[in-house]
Amino acid sequence: MGSTDGYTVGFQHSPQIKTLKLFDESPYNSKTENPGSRANLEDQCEQVSLASKCESGISGIDNGQDTHMFKNGLIRVHEEDKMYGIIKNKSVSSLSSCGLHTEVEAIHKKDYSGVMCQAKLQSFCTYARAMEQNFRGGANMKYAWYGASKNELNNILLHGFGHSMNIGVYGGGICLSPADYPIGSFQSSVADEDGLRHLLVCHVLLGRTEIVQPNSGQSNPSSEKFDSGVDNLACPKKYVVWSTRVNTHILPEYIVSFRSSSGLEGYQRISHPLRRPSSNFIPFPALIKALSKFLPPDAVKTMAKHYGDHKEKKMTRLKLIQRLRNIAGDKLLFVVIKSYMDKV
């Protein structure tokens, strides 16, 4: 690898991605028209009236709060719970089909029993009812994933979405991924100090959708006929909820904590075969500085701490590289390294 104070990474080709359905059952115990069939969660949710959900609220699984991973307002979902098995099995299998080997460490459910939380829930349900009565075609409520750092997810659970979150090629809104495509949000997650990545499972009110082009600069619906955006009408992999509606049209429900035995390079080999940079060396300080332009401050702080531990002989170079790959992901690392080498 050359120098003992630099970073190198290689990429290989892999088979085509195969995506799977995330959920097969509804948490609300609704009945399907064909009892023998196994329906998608989205279909079963449509069979539960919005009114019944709002009247009952989204309550906790039990009365014992377990918040060692996150701040107050979450209740741990136990392994014997029906939804734990559904989320675990389908999310892990879907990520595995994309080349990511993950294990679910824990699942927590947002507690909406407090007065302010009930107000947020009722606001979401009010918009859902209004959209159901709208001539455009209904609320089009879906489950979706949202990935970010643990600190950002804490802030969302406590205060709601901020307008500056998840800024990317769809900078005018919050970008989520469909229930059957968790990899889309897994790429946006950031490994915490324990190596865990965290994803929100949210209810989303999409209403009538329109195609939004990347880097278009669009920040609102193109007309009153539409409510939200997608990257593809037939088979969307991105839902775009405009920044003015993120706290009325998105309702966080679960947070899933994953431990990955492999970085994002497996997925990148499948979806975007990449060339190896012409040189295999970049100093760690230069790498961290370049990554700081793309990653949240807490992720950069964690990388700097790992590098400090490496310099003090508390962490091996190989371990440091593994940590950086877990935090940044190989696609971003490749782009940063290539850009650095082009300048050099």
TrEMBL record:
One of its GO terms (molecular function) is NAD+ poly-ADP-ribosyltransferase activity. Keywords: Developmental protein, Nucleus, Stress response. The keyword Nucleus applies. PROSITE patterns: PARP_CATALYTIC, RST. Residues 58-279 form the PARP catalytic domain. InterPro entries: Poly(ADP-ribose)pol_cat_dom, RCD1/SRO1-5, RST. Residues 275-344 form the RST domain. It is found in: Nucleus. One of its GO terms (cellular component) is nucleus. Its main location: nucleus. It holds the Pfam family RST. This is Probable inactive poly [ADP-ribose] polymerase SRO5.
